[in-house]
């Protein structure tokens, strides 16, 4: 696990930091509040048992966003990832920007290099 993903604990509490698109911050906070309401001893609201899909929380999420996040999580530059999977760095850039589609074969190559399921890139 990379250093930025480690959970810091103090007594009975853990500090968790996540980075989300600013436009989705309120929606993410609402989801977290609903999850916390499910904890024992907490009063749940009307939606306490509701499950949220990734699409509901991040309706504008595209495969390129997932690619960029996965690459960042592995600490790779576009150039490094391109060398790992045998493509030009510009192809990685175009996929991240949504200008180049990510087909099944490319998704599998990316998945091997980024230690992820290929399905997240489709």
Task: Provide an overview of this structure.
By secondary structure, the protein is mostly helical. The chain has 6 helices and 2 strands. A hairpin with a 2-residue loop joins β1 (8-10) and β2. The longest helix is centred in the first third of the chain and has 13 residues, at 25-37.
What is this structure, in a nutshell?
The chain is mainly α. The protein has helices spanning about 25-35, 55, 65-75, 80-85, 90-95, 105-115; strands at about 10, 15. β1 (about 10) and β2 (about 15) form a beta hairpin.
List the helices and strands and how they pair.
Elements (H helix, E strand, L loop, with lengths): L7 E3 L2 E3 L9 H13 L16 H4 L5 H11 L4 H8 L3 H8 L7 H11 L8
Antiparallel strand pairs: 1-2
Classify the beta-strand content into a percent band.
Answer: under 5%
Contiguous helical run count: 6
The tally of beta strands, per DSSP, is: 2
| CATH-level-2 architecture of the largest domain | Orthogonal Bundle
Task: Tell me the distance between the termini.
Answer: 25 Å
Strand order of the largest sheet: 1-2
Largest sheet: 2 strands, antiparallel
Radius of gyration: 18 Å
**What name does CATH use for the topology of the largest domain?**
434 Repressor (Amino-terminal Domain)
CATH class of the largest domain: Mainly Alpha
Gross morphology is elongated
- If you average the pLDDT, what whole number results? 81
Write the CATH homologous superfamily of the largest domain.
Answer: lambda repressor-like DNA-binding domains
SSE ordering: EEHHHHHH
Oligomer: single chain
Q: What is the helix content?
A: 40-55%
Structural class: mainly alpha
């Amino acid at each position: 696990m990379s250093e930025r993903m480690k959970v810091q604990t103090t007594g009975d509490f853990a500090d968790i930091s996540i980075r989300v698109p600013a436009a989705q911050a309120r929606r993410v906070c609402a989801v977290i509040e609903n999850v916390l309401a499910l904890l024992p001893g907490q009063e749940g609201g009307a939606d306490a048992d509701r499950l949220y899909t990734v699409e509901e929380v991040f309706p504008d999420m595209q495969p390129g966003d997932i690619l960029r996040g996965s690459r960042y999580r592995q600490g790779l530059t576009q150039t490094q990832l391109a060398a790992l999977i045998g493509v030009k760095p510009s192809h990685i850039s175009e996929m991240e920007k949504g200008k180049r589609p990510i087909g099944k074969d490319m998704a599998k190559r990316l998945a091997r290099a980024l230690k992820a399921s290929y399905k997240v890139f489709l």
